[in-house]
Fold this sequence. Notes:
Layout (H helix, E strand, L loop, with lengths): L2 H14 L13 H8 L9 E4 L6 H7 L6 E4 L2 H11 L7 E4 L11 E7 L8 H14 E12 L6 E2 L2 E2 L5 H8 L3 E12 L5 E11 L1
Parallel strand pairs: 1-2, 1-4, 2-3, 4-5
Antiparallel strand pairs: 5-9, 6-7, 8-9
Helix pairs in contact: 1-4
Bound molecules: S-adenosylmethionine.
Amino acid sequence: MDELQATEHWQQIYSTRQEQELSWFEDTPGISLELLLTPPLDQDASVLDVGGGASRLVDALLDRGFTAPTVLDISEAALQKSKMRLAGRAALARWITADITEWQPDRDYRAWHDRAVFHFLTTEEQRLAYRSVLEKAVVPGGVVVIGTFALDGPERCSGLPVRRYSPESLAAELGHHFRLTADRMAEHRTPAGKAQGFQFSRFVRE
Ligand SMILES: C[S@@+](CC[C@H](N)C(=O)[O-])C[C@H]1O[C@@H](n2cnc3c(N)ncnc32)[C@H](O)[C@@H]1O
């Protein structure tokens, strides 16, 4: 799937479905918050949610006083959903429509979060491009939290094939600039009631 097809795929999904109908919907991004904020981050730390879609992580960061969270997604329709939900508070966040594998970081980031995006990168070329952006964007000492389907998780999501990871195999993908400091296994319950095995890993940029 090339970039144009990927954009169309995700635009179609977010344009035709309600947020709560999406299989990855979660009311509260509990594990993401725990791993991002332990140890605590300054409220003015630049936090990037990669492929944030319509996730409520940005709401939770604003609730906690973060001054400029950034949400990036390949789908403009996804970001519109979050902006509509946040209404007046949307102006407190930064919004970027881009394919993460093609993006040029616009500033340094202290924290990078990705829930269920990296696992869609099925070619080595895509993963190397993601890693190159990650290395450019995150400052030394910065935190990186990535959630993917676990080794026992689904093989497809949203009609697309995925790759599944353990914390160790994800660490091997990211390379020696990123030190694994914590991980959690999690069972996500989709709105249709299906259980999906996830792993969340926290890294520090060396
Ligand atoms: C399974 S959803 C997860 C959304 C969000 N992280 C959450 O937890 O609710 C995957 C998201 O990644 C976005 N996405 C997929 N490929 C992308 C890419 N190459 N660059 C940026 N965003 C991408 C999709 O539009 C979608 O919002």
